[in-house]
Amino acid sequence: MADPHVVVVGGGIAGLAAAVFLADGPHRVTVLEASGRVGGKLMAGEVGGVRVDLGAESVLARRPEAVDLARAVGLADALEPPSTAKAAIWTRDALRPIPGGQVMGVPGDLDALAASGVLTPEGLDRARHERSGPPVDADTTIGAYVGSRLGQEVVDRLVEPLLGGVYAGQTSEISLRAAVPQLLPIALDGGPLVDGVRRLTGRAQAAGPVFQGIRGGIGTLPEAAAAHLRRAGADLRTDSPVEELRRTPDGWRVVAGGRALHADAVVLAVPAPQAAALLRADAPAAAAELATVEYAGMALVTMAFHRADLGEPPQGSGFLVPPVDGRSIKASTFSSNKWGWLGAAAPDAFVLRTSLGRHREEAVLGLPDEELVARSLADLGRAVGLSARPYATAVTRWTGGLPQYPVGHLDRVARIRRSVAAVGALAVCGAAYDGVGIPACIAGARRAVNEVLTPAAGAAPTEGTMGA
């Protein structure tokens, strides 16, 4: 009897992870990716002769999924923590250290908050006089919850820039339950928020580095996963957009590039709009829910400078910018400082990058590359006194790159999964469901693989099949 054939639609990190889990078991695996490369928002490139990440640049190390996948595909020796994690917030016309003892900008150490100078005296006084409130018995926005307890300035100058760096969204719309679930028990209990965060951060301090990188960039991960899949005998096809997905009596008919494939099961690892289009015929309720998912776009401007032109390079790992301060950029990363491998690979260059754009403020993405570079340089001049000109630049636009998690998002995801499960031999995964971070996407891929494998498609894998 032939091994069950599972088709994975989408070659981003979620689709690649699902394929790795499947290929390690008794399955024939085909990955169909619409674009000319795999990796999605994980993309390595070159700027001025220096290899850099043009998309995601690190993974959360306090979740195991991404680190385990990197090890499974041969990158165990390439994992590397940041050389420095000393980041700042550019607010009130100065770079101010991000205070320690916080969770997504919510403070647990008011002395550290005061020492940072991020808040005005009035904002700090409001945070020190935390207002009690009833327990949260339903989902609410992060901005509403934190603002009611600690004041709007904590939201504007701390939570907004940190959360914006993850979701490119707005605290007035993003779900507490979906985006910062570690705060949910505190909200449900109704106890003091600052005390609850202090307990959380105290436990986290012994957990090691918050983030991990990979020598050569996080874009190395999808490249290694693709090589692993090819060695395992998987069929990995780029430039293969799926035009049709239909349930049949014995599995699925998948049409890509005008060619029809038979699949015993399908893992759908594409953004919500594409998933909605493919599911319209066989899972119309899921398609309708997926069509409501909104996305934010952003642009990354990567610049390479000659170190000799800089004099004294900027210090630390970079800075975040609260939208309330009215700047063009929302963050800057000093990549050559942050990643030791990058500084070693290009000792005469200094690479940094900025990001622009967030949910409902994507008009900036339509500006010419030269204007995005000029706006970035102007803000860098004001923030760190940078006056040198880069010898090379690259602008990467991630249009519709980050799904938004509004109030009710997790309930919507549950409805989508129920609708999909009712069809059989089908599962969904990706950034639109359980978190936009790389570990969350990989965990969603594991879940999808376990859900999709029915008796017709073979036994579900165990947690050990990744070989980590």
TrEMBL record:
Species, as recorded: Kitasatospora paranensis
Family: Belongs to the protoporphyrinogen/coproporphyrinogen oxidase family. Coproporphyrinogen III oxidase subfamily.
Domain of life: Bacteria
Name of the molecule in the record: Coproporphyrinogen III oxidase
GO MF annotation: an example: oxygen-dependent protoporphyrinogen oxidase activity
Named cofactor requirement(s): FAD
Enzyme Commission number, as recorded: 1.3.3.15
Pathway(s) where this gene product acts: Porphyrin-containing compound metabolism; protoheme biosynthesis
Chief location bin: cytoplasm
UniProt cross-references to PANTHER family, sorted A to Z: PROTOPORPHYRINOGEN OXIDASE
